[in-house]
């Protein structure tokens, strides 16, 4: 990786992490309370998770063998979930290895999916637009906590990942994503919070 890009990548990762923290602290809950709520986390744990996420993103961006921008990173109570579409098994193995080496990581969940062939520029533009449409649909839904769900798209196949409160939210997110025009398939990589 170009040495001039590393400070920029680290800054972007830090900003993304802090934005997530601030958004998480300020949002109002509009989601109905499920019968069994996951155990809450403390403000300290949330901050620790944000720091771990930022460190993992920086480590992935700093590794020349990994396309760090293709991998989504989410953390809950020290468990790091890696998701997204990647080019090959070697990239998955390296991403897991790099993540496990980051201080504070207790466990790693591999929810990465192998990409099916090369994408053209047109595919990437279409996938970007489709990702935005799915994110908008999730945000508009009263049941889904869209801030907990990452969305990536590869050739009209949408992957949903993240730590969510209940199976009801998983089920609803899948229904909402499948209903978006242009979506050819949905891959569920969401985990229920413990």
Key descriptive features of the protein:
194 residues, alpha/beta, 3-stranded mixed beta sheet, 5 helices, 44% helix, flat
Would you write up a description of this structure?
The protein has 194 residues and is α/β, with parallel strands linked by helices. The protein is 44% helix and 22% strand. It has five helices and six strands; from the N terminus they run ααββαβαββαβ. The chain has helices at 5-26, 43-62, 89-100, 121-140, 167-178, and strands at residues 72-76, 79-86, 107-114, 150-154, 157-164, 185-192. The strands form two sheets. A three-stranded mixed sheet has the order 1-2-3. A three-stranded mixed sheet has the order 4-5-6. Strand 2 (79-86), helix 3 and strand 3 form a beta-alpha-beta unit. Helix 1 runs antiparallel to helix 2. It is flat and about 40 Å long. Residues 21-34 have low confidence and may be disordered.
Give a nutshell description of this structure.
The protein is of the alpha/beta class and 194 residues long. Helix content is 44%, strand content 22%.
Strands side by side in the biggest sheet: 1-2-3
**Proportion in β-strands:** 15-25%
Q: In terms of quaternary structure, what is this?
A: single chain
Shape, per Cα inertia axes: flat
Structural class: alpha/beta
Q: Which bin fits the share of residues in helices?
A: 40-55%
How many helices does DSSP assign? 5
Radius of gyration, CA atoms, in whole angstroms? 16 Å
Largest sheet: 3 strands, mixed
């Amino acid at each position: 990786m170009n040495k001039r890009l590393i400070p920029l990548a680290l800054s972007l990762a830090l900003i993304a992490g802090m934005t997530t923290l601030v958004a998480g602290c300020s949002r109002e809950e509009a989601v109905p309370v499920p019968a069994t709520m996951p155990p809450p986390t403390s403000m300290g744990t949330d901050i620790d998770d944000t720091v771990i996420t930022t460190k993992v993103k920086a480590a992935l961006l700093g590794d020349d063998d990994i396309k760090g921008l293709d991998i989504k990173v989410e953390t809950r109570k020290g468990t790091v979930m890696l998701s997204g579409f990647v080019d090959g098994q070697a990239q998955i193995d390296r991403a897991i290895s790099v993540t496990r080496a980051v201080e504070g990581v207790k466990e790693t969940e591999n929810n990465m999916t192998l990409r099916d062939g090369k994408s053209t520029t047109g595919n990437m533009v279409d996938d970007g637009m489709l990702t935005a449409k799915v994110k908008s649909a999730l945000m508009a839904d009263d049941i889904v906590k869209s801030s907990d769900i990452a969305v990536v798209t590869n050739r009209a196949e949408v992957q949903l990942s993240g730590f969510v409160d209940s199976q009801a939210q998983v089920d609803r997110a899948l229904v909402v994503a499948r209903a978006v025009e242009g979506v050819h398939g949905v891959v569920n990589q969401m985990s229920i919070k413990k």
